[in-house]
Amino acid sequence: MKRSVLLYLLLLLLNSSIYCQDTTETKCVKILFVGNSLTYSNNLPQLVKKDAQSKGIEVDYEMIAFPNYAIIDHWNDGNVQKLISSQSFDFVILQQGPSSQREGRRMLIEDGNKYKELCELNKSTLCYFMVWPSLNYYRTFDDVIKNHRDAATINGALLLPVGEVWKEYIDSTEKLDYYSQDGFHPSKLGSSVAAKVIVDYLFPQ
To answer: Is 50 exceeded by the pLDDT of residue 13?
Structure first.
């Protein structure tokens, strides 16, 4: 079994989320993360949960993420539909690879629409987690941003513009410390920034 798969399974074991309850002081929300290694690296959902707590929001989450998966792969597996239909998520956050090319754009829009229709039936808000290209394909960053923005607009979804924040930081500082050593996956700092962007856009002041 590949190391990345073992890591994913370990994260699932660690993810023993305690279902939260609304109180007069704490708002409780449920989030489903659907993605691949860019989501489960550094356990991004747990970072989101921690950051949301600083705003007085208790997050209960589920994560379904496998190496190299696109959103259509999850759909074809069938498990994601069961989760969305049975657990009353407030937010469903979709993430796939950079999607700068035509086929990636098509998947974001057309396959994302399948999720949109299911989310509407279950009163969940669909969100797009905008990611980033590898350093080898940094030149495609503008297309990554455009395709995610277009997909969110076309499908009436909430955009979580993590990639855009990454690009602004890298272009202005010329630092690459949001990337890990492989030049694609996020470093711990990169995942921390991603979590903050997600929380800020899910729960604006």
So the answer is: no
Q: What is the pLDDT of residues 174-191, one digit of tens each?
A: 999 999 999 999 999 999
Query: Could you report the per-residue pLDDT of 156-170, keeping only the tens digit for each?
Result: 999 999 999 999 999
pLDDT of residue 25: 62
Q: What is the identity of the amino acid at 67?
A: P
Spatial CA neighbour of 197 closest among 99, 114, 127, 146? 127
pTM of the model: 0.89
Which of 100, 89, 95 is closest to 41 using CA atoms? 95
Backbone angles phi, psi at 204, to 5 degrees: -65, 145
Q: Which residues contact 168 (CB under 8 A, 6 or more apart)?
A: none
Range of the domain at 158: 3-202
CATH number of the domain within which 161 lies: 3.40.50.1110
Please spell the DSSP secondary structure of 11-79, one letter per residue. HHHH--PPPP---SS-EEEEEEEEESHHHHGGGHHHHHHHHHHTTTEEEEEEEEE-TT--HHHHHHH-H
Q: What is the pLDDT of residues 95-124, one digit of tens each?
A: 999 999 999 999 999 999 999 999 999 999
Other CB atoms within a 10 A radius of the CB of residue 16 amount to: 6
How many domains does one find in the chain?
Answer: 1
Q: Are 51 and 112 in contact (CB under 8 A)?
A: no
